Amino acid sequence: MKSIWESRKPATIVKYCSTLRKFFEFCKIKNINIVVPFDSLTIAQYLEHIKLTTSAISAVSNALVSIKWLHGFMPGLNASNDPANDRFLSKIVESCSRNMTKMKQRKEPLSPEMIKAFIESVPKNASLTQLRDCLIPVLSFSLLLCHDEASHLYCNHFFREVQGLKILIPSSKTDSFRQGKFVFLSKKNRSGFDLISKYLQKSNLDFGQNHFFFGPIEFNKSNRRYEVSNRRLSYDVYNKIFKNAVSKLGLKPKNFGTHSARSGGASCLAPHISQYDLMLSGRWSDPRSIGSYVETPVQRRFEINEILDINP
């Protein structure tokens, strides 16, 4: 059982268990016996219930996946005799996806000009919060980081090299082997280095410490100063930092998200480096992933079309 349990990440297991609790509550209300494996009609009844009571597109598919995971603990069940694999259940999921699909608004990428504006907006006597809130989008843009990667950075993941900083990315969804991957910040990116130095000085942190590099900033009553708490920075705070940064530039916060920095950095690099170098920089294992991040300017699209040259 332990081997099956450890076949998924802890966060995934928590999500499955949360979804299954809702399923069990539904069974109690409907006076359905909670016996594993559940018959396909009971599962179908629950999927239809979710379809009618939620607006989340992924809720139905997540429920079915969670029930399949639960059935995986039953010896003897396989793809052919598992009730959760009945074809008509997949049709319910497809129906939900088709009828509930909404047009997604792709978030705009950050531009180099915006990053420079963030840096220039930092006052000389900046507070610890101001330095952190500027460094997060700047570093995320420069290193193509997403929240999951930036929030797991520790001070001891930074290594000084002759040409700059070598930084270990300990947690990455794109790292299929979970061995960690390195990113590199050149000294020639002076503004980024200056921000890091000021941030370390203000926070009393240093490379090599077993302390989160980014974390919630809290007031320490004993020494009467603000400090970086040794806790992971939540997604909500990370997202708010990006929204506040772009709103100060007079832009609409809703047009930007936490992946805007990663997308902006990738879009800036794409015209100047090979696909291999871009995949290496962004830690992508599949070239198709690049299309989700790289934004080609309208002017470049016209230039590409001009290559056809159909004029007589």
The CATH superfamily of the largest domain is identified as: Intergrase catalytic core
Estimated share of beta-strand residues: 5-15%
Largest sheet: 3 strands, antiparallel
Strand tally, please? 5
Structural Rg: 24 Å
What structural class do you assign from the helix and strand content? mainly alpha
**Roughly what is the average pLDDT, rounded to an integer?**
87
SSE pattern: HHHHHHHHEEEHEEHHHH
Globular, elongated, flat, extended or rod-shaped: what is the shape? Answer: globular
Q: For the record, give the distance between the C-alpha atoms at the N and C termini, rounded to a whole number.
A: 72 Å
User: How is the largest sheet built, in terms of strand order?
Assistant: 1-2-3
CATH topology of the largest domain: hpI Integrase, Chain A
**Helix amount:** 40-55%
Instruction: Supply the CATH class of the largest domain.
Output: Mainly Alpha
